Fold:
Amino acid sequence: MSQSITIEEYQKRRARLLARLKKASAHAIAVIPSAQLQTRSRDTEFPFRQDSDFFYLTGFNEPNAILALAPHADAPVQLYCQPTSPHEEVWHGRRLGVDKAAETLGIDFAASIDDVDDHLYALLDGTEKVYFAHDKHDLAAQLYSIADELRASPKQGHQAPQAWVDINPWLAEMRIIKSPAELDLMREAARISVLAHKRAMLFAKPGKFEYQVAAEIHHEFAMHGAISPAYGTICGSGENACILHYTENQSELRDGGLLLIDAGAEYQGFAGDITRTFPVNGRFSETQKELYNVVLAAQQAALATLKPGSNLPTAMKAAGKTLTEGLHALGILKGSLKKLIDDEAFRPFMIHGLGHWLGLDVHDVGTYTQEGKKRKFEPGMVLTIEPGIYIPKGMPNVDEKWHGIGIRIEDDVIITENGHENMTSAVPKTVAEIEQWMTAK
Structure:
């Protein structure tokens, strides 16, 4: 698909930030850096992935750049980027360059990143507040060094900034509600992720290896324009499924075992994030089926709560109650059901949260509380819902027939005006759907 974010939308985002800066102080600026190339080994780098905040504000996908927003300046939106260089480009790829940056990206002024310190010196001089992400340590060192130079020159009329403010909360608030264009891109990331999971189900069988399943997934991503996964693909078979962030993907798939796949495509910067658990041989055992249906019922209970005005703890309460009831019915939890529910006795079997925000980052920015209260859902929010049950070998006080089973089910959901939209429901999920799909191979 060819949809993308328009220049006008990026300009509106920067205008919102400029307006907030102007309101915060008579002289405030914001400085947002791009990502840098990261060394993989010796003189080779990892594939470049742009910083999400920088990309959100610019749509510019090159390293070694800085965006400066200065509402009081003659050119409020300034970009410092790599100049064109025939020598460098023949080795490392084409650059947009300074001359084309302003028109292409819809900004006011562009200059070479080689001259950025001189320009930042002028912007910081006399500025009251500087907003930047405090976890960007290289940028912090650069800004503080310039401030030291200003501070050392009071006789020349220079003045260092008076305050340094973290811009992360502002950008997180902007990013948590997705625009219609962003939602379309997320639907495409979800669609591609769905196709990859369905392909993996058809490919998996005893004797294959986890890394081969991952290769099938990544191939499907790329064939639909998602060049890379949104995070490290998890293909955990057997007891490996009990390791939440298992990414070794080295084990052989065993007949009679389950395979947990947690994988999502990244499409134009946006993440998909789906988990399915299914039998390698295409048929659930009775034990597997019983435990799987408990997790499925918990996810269905959580999904039923999703609507504007509700919140993630409400969904978690519904999922937790259903998990507890299911574990109790199977004899894994024992005692008074009411007390088990009140005590959240399911927690040892599901040690992670129920879900997270989703967007340009797979664990996207945005707080889960607001003004001291649990944050309410609003239309345009996107999150995952992913209950699970994990019973590693040796877990005490649990019948051994359950040992070594890990099950998680995860979907990507948009909060809508009237409820929610499950973008990833097309991946087979019920026992019957999974078994029917896998017999197609």
Q: What stands out?
A: The longest strand covers residues 28-33.
